Amino acid sequence: MLFFAFACSSSNKKSKEERLVEQLANIRSGDKIELEAGVYNLTSPIKIIGVKDVKISGKGMGKTILQYNQNKKPNSLILLDSADVTLCKFSIRCSDQSGVICRKTKDVTFKDLEISWVNNTQPLGQFEGISAFSNNKFVLGHCTVTGFPGAGMSIESCTEFAIRKNRLEKNLLGIKIFNSSYGEIYDNQCTKNNLGLLLENIPEESWTNGKNIRVFNNNISENEIMFNPGFYEPKWSLALGVGILIETYTYIDVYNNKIKNNAFLNLGIKSSSLTDDAHRPKDFDLYYSSISVHDNDFEKSRGEYSSGENFIQIISKQFGKNVPDIVLDGTVDPATIDQYGNIGERFRIRIRRNINASVGVLKIEKPFY
Length: 369
Prior knowledge:
Blueprint: E1 3-6, H1 16-25, E2 32-35, E3 38-42, E4 46-57, E5 64-68, E6 76-94, E7 98-103, E8 106-117, E9 130-133, E10 136-141, E11 144-146, E12 151-156, E13 159-164, E14 167-169, E15 173-178, E16 181-186, E17 189-191, E18 195-200, E19 211-216, E20 242-247, E21 250-255, E22 258-260, E23 265-270, E24 289-294, E25 297-299, H2 310-319, E26 326-328, E27 349-352, E28 359-361
Parallel strand pairs: 1-2, 2-4, 3-5, 4-6, 5-6, 6-7, 6-8, 7-9, 8-10, 8-11, 9-12, 10-13, 11-14, 12-15, 13-16, 14-17, 15-18, 16-19, 18-20, 19-21, 20-23, 21-24, 22-25, 23-26, 24-27, 26-28
């Protein structure tokens, strides 16, 4: 194991950035790297690939700052493809790239990171603060992610994860969960994004349907209808001004959250059975089931019409500005109905003991497409 400490001023001919990139290019399992306070203007992205038991730490958010300072932009400032890695106590400033992309990793911890988008010009891609793909057993905690034209935190095809005690503000999406299972999302401040929390199974050939997610003790409020400068148009088909949107998921428990004053809708639940199935895998589960929404504190959304997304269009048409706090699309999986015409006990949607919550079910006469 090697231990490195990088100071921001040195008599060494090489700059602190050059020395950092050089050491990271030769990083080995067991290395611990401490970054001193200061701004690191990187000329190439940090890549941590094929090692394990590595820790990179700074002197604190806003004290140790990493940013990329070249015309040729990488996809991310940090690319991680290793096991048992900890990143903590520093800031990442992004202008034309994602903050951290981690793929096919295990036992990863991000703690006390500040990741922010600082570019007001039109980005050329949907960049994200933290993007995790096909990871197992990871924790994102005590992080602040702001201003991204994509998701603040994006979790795709992952298992056994915790997203806790983070602050996500002014992103396109606060937290995005695609086809992921056995996760806990708790004690987060997810406010002033376009969409607070998205839980969705999408029909990708190589992905299985996600399930078993607990969402509790979060503040998912005041998510607005705002369009990041130059990035997307109001007609783009994302549900904007929504607190929580659940699509085609099973075994979801949403409880003890504050879900208040979101611009259009506080909580929506929808299936994929009413959308175009041209590219859908045969074994893709179209329906939601086994969802419990209980003991949450609601405050009425404002019913401000948000976007061209079909689910939102139908809600707006049916309810106008008097949008209920919780809206379901009303679809039922035929496979969950017993011989007496009742939905099986374990497949039911349970909405109970919520404060100030109204519930609406859509009347849909034809598919969304």
